[in-house]
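Narrative progress, year one. The postdoctoral researcher (J.K.) led the effort to move from monomer predictions toward full complexes, under supervision of the PI. The following entry was the first complex the group processed end to end, covering 242 residues in total.
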Amino acid sequence: MSTNWRMVGYVFLGGALGTMLRYLISDLISLNIDYPSGELIALTVVNLTGAYLLGLAAKLPFFQSFFCRNFWAAGFAGGFTTMSALTLFIDSQGLSGEIGAMMLMGVVAYGTGYRQGRLAAKKAQV
Amino acid sequence: MSFDPITLLLLIGLAGGLGSVIRVYITRWEGAVPFGVILTNTIAAGFVGYIYSGNLTEAYLLIAAIGFAGGLSTFSGIAKAGFDFWHTGRIAQILISLAANIVVPLLALSLVMFWF
């Protein structure tokens, strides 16, 4: 199997940027709001934004280049969102309705981005 | 040993980039439910369980948990898989993949924390 090093590099840079931004955002929120609700708010903000961005990247013409597909979609939107922190949160705080709502809202956020991107792509074609 | 904030941030980014590259290769495995996404989230959760039951210092814990495991696990991939099933009208598969992405990583985390 040949490795596409250009793709690996873009994904690495995008993932690094997304991870650093997620750390900063969750740090900023947890400085102002105490642990259980602050962590949940930070996870919701980060995950829904990342899902929306990935949906936007699916069809929006701006994101269709090789660089943008790997840097913004696979790297940034993937590294920005997290499931391991959510799993840890569920393990310590228990499964609640908010978590289930977040999972469903993630699909909705992705769908919203997807539709907006497709609409913009259609407008650009005409 | 602790780092100054900028070095810590850069090390978290380095670990996150590494996790992201591994994730992109694993999530190519798709099927009736997004097996690759479930697998990366499970590996990340197991890794978090393993490092939290060890005795790492705060800085290394942040780098490994927020950086590597956070970059390796993905939420947007779950949303993408769920929406793709929505397109083809497969409601049951949406619910199964959402539930599996919570239950399987949680099981891995609990088992790893129980064993180590």
